[in-house]
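Supplementary notes (optional reading)

For those who missed the lab, this is the record we used. Protein: Acyl-CoA thioesterase 8. Length: 252 residues.
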Amino acid sequence: MSSPQAPEDGQGSGDPPGDLRSVLVTSVLNLEPLDEDLFRGRNYWAPTTRRLFGGQIVGQALVAAAKSVSEDVHMHSLHCYFVREGDPKVPVLYQVERTRTGASFSVRSVKAVQHGKAIFICQVSFQQAQPSPMQHQFSMPTVPPPEELLDSETLIDQYLRDPNLQEKYRVGLNRIPAREVPIEIKPVNPPPLNQLQSMEPKQMFWVRARGYIGGSRGLVQGRLWRRDGVLAVSCAQEGVIRVNPRVSKSKL
């Protein structure tokens, strides 16, 4: 599988060898082969939830699938299911099933296993590169360029300086800067402090790597555009939303 090109607005070719892309390829995405279509992945991040970081599992599973196809095909579709929480204290085994290998399309199934049970499964479809006579996409929203926006760290610092910030928000915001997140995020319309509880269920961000390179369910759909307006990625994720019931303080 061909390596993705680094973003054009990233750092130049003079970056040190320890840039983000090199770190990912040589550590997180460097799987240990155990047998044919069987790999072992190491864990590098343990979120505050003390569960495995989902992005790491997806990335390692995709690498395992790509090792079972030829280098002249490209992944075009990925369907993922997180079935159990991951244990950051033990490695993850990735079992690849070669579901179909065709002339134009190849499909691979990957199962991530810990303690003898599947924690994650996915279906990956690869396609031979070929010309496309038709092109269409969603239009990119009209937003200010990232140079005109504040990053999340600066916004958090502004929130924390406000003496009216509720303590429950202060505790959560103080935890965020302590995490080592390799992604820079710039919200397009950050909410004022007094509107944190009444935000619209829609947010827009500029994001880039810091380096070279119902019924209790919520559905999130995302679209990522390049700076030149070309739609690069469409994604959707469904997750469980649990809301603590509010207890009425009425004296009646």
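If you only remember one thing from this example: Residues 54-66 form the longest helix (13 residues).
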